[in-house]
Amino acid sequence: MVDDVKRALDCGVLRIRDGGAPQRAHLKYAYKWPLEKAIRSSIEATAFAHANGLEVVFLFPIEFSRAEMNMGA
After folding, report:
1. Structure-derived torsion over alpha carbons of residues 27, 6, 47, 22, reported in degrees to the nearest 10
2. How far is CA 57 from CA 15, 34, 36, 49, 69, in A?
3. What is the pLDDT of residues 53-62, one digit of tens each?
4. Which of 10, 32, 46, 72 is 20 to 30 A from residue 38's alpha carbon, by CA?
5. 24: closest CA among 14, 11, 36, 9?
6. Which SS3 state, helix, strand or coil, does residue 45 take?
7. CA distance linking residue 68 with residue 16, whole number of Å
8. What is the spatial distance between Cα 68 and Cα 58, in angstroms, rounded to a whole number?
9. Rounded CA gap, 19 and 61, in Å?
10. pTM of the predicted model over 0.90
């Protein structure tokens, strides 16, 4: 999330790891977010980090193997 990136910048870090792409069950029951909000939040945080000179590594590609092919389309 953008607020997390702001905290990282305040600490002077050069790189962050984006732990996006939680499982649908996490989104639904833990976060209570629709899928679109999770996607939007990850994109916004990554774009903000890049705009502020941070290197970003996106984690959890294993979750993509569970994604629907038309997800986000």
Report:
1. -20
2. 8, 23, 21, 11, 23
3. 999 887 765 5
4. 10
5. 36
6. helix
7. 27
8. 19
9. 10
10. no
